[in-house]
Amino acid sequence: MVSQHEFHYTQPYTTEEGKTLPEFTLAYATIGQLNEAKDNVIWVCHAFSGNDNVLDWWPGLFGEGKLFDPEKHFIVCANMLGSCYGSTGPLSINPATKTPYFHDFPLLTNRDIIGAFDILRQHLNIEKVSQLIGCSLGGQQALEWTISQPEVFQSLICIGASAKHSPWGIAFNQTQRMAIEQDPSWQEKSVKAGLEGMKTARAVAMLSYRNYQTYLATQQDPDDSKLDNFRACTYQSYQGEKMAKRFNAFSYWYLSKAMDSQNIGRGRGEIEAILGEIQIPCLYIGLSSDILFPIEEQKFLAKHTNNAHYSEIDSLYGHDGFLIESTQLTEVVNQYFEQIATI
């Protein structure tokens, strides 16, 4: 059902900072078939550590009989630049040196990432995207892409994201980068550099993805006589180990910087005015217990976007609720589709 592809862009690509990638590759997946009218495209921007196969990490929303059904839709998801699931990232070979980039990989912003996505879109001859959907870091990118290419997208669903990354969110990311930088191996030109530090970084991240009530409900020790080796301790260690098996510290470090870069007003003007220029219907979804991207941020987006709808998911699971609360998400998105169909 899922078709995996690679797109190779062989021209120099200049980043917002002014650095240049000699070339890049985007790994991307498609599910379903593009119809004759080419009006059934669903484009997904994945979250921080996600990949291009939405059936892997969002099976509650995508698949046969689900909200986004490949029998009806042509679903596209590309692995973002800087990641480690097939797209060009810090461990990719630099054509100029014939060795991995490592620490010499250029700083990426969300604008750089969606710029590469748009090159892929043009390569695929997709003129219109019926529905752009993004969550977390991917939600930031989807919003940025909507603003930069307003003629392409017909509707936006933005989940747990923001117009500008908050000092609170940046502080979480900087703390995680500090953990990586404290790893003595971080300065090495090695695929395993910073890996131990990244384990701690991921444990810190879990505190922002969940919240006090989540841990109280899921990591409470039934044994009141325990003095050590608490369940919450082993959970934190487990999350770090699990991340180390599928990610690398370089991608982690660079993508956290991309998240920090989010500011739709940079070089454009007031954020409220920029949001006011969006003409397409937009659904902004907040998660009630999200402490990383609090619901105030999605309400702000909805308040200043003309044709906006706001929905809130009641979830125990904080920011991670967008991966877990599939039933609620399906309900609010269907309600949104019904609303915009009557406009």
What are the salient characteristics of this protein?
343 residues; alpha/beta; Rossmann fold; two-stranded antiparallel ribbon; 38% helix; globular; cytoplasm; homoserine O-acetyltransferase activity; HAT_MetX-like; Homoserine O-acetyltransferase; transferase
Could you please describe the fold and organization of this structure?
The protein has two domains: 2-166 and 263-341, Rossmann fold; 169-259, Orthogonal Bundle (Rna Polymerase Sigma Factor, Chain: A). The model has no long low-confidence stretch (mean pLDDT 97). The longest helix has 16 residues, at 326-341. The protein has helices at residues 54-57, 110-123, 137-148, 167-181, 195-209, 212-218, 231-244, 249-260, 271-276, 295-304, 321-324, 326-341; strands at 2-9, 13-14, 20-21, 24-31, 41-45, 74-78, 93-94, 99-100, 131-135, 156-159, 282-287, 308-313. It is an alpha/beta fold. The strands form three sheets. The protein has an eight-stranded mixed beta sheet with strand order 1-4-6-5-9-10-11-12, with helices on both faces. It has a two-stranded antiparallel ribbon with strand order 2-3. Helix 2 (110-123) packs across helix 3 and helix 4 (167-181) runs antiparallel to helix 5 (195-209). The radius of gyration is 20 Å and the shape is globular. The protein is built from twelve helices and twelve strands. Keywords: Acyltransferase, Amino-acid biosynthesis, Cytoplasm, Methionine biosynthesis, Transferase. Pathway: Amino-acid biosynthesis; L-methionine biosynthesis via de novo pathway; O-acetyl-L-homoserine from L-homoserine: step 1/1. Substrate binds at residues 202, 320.
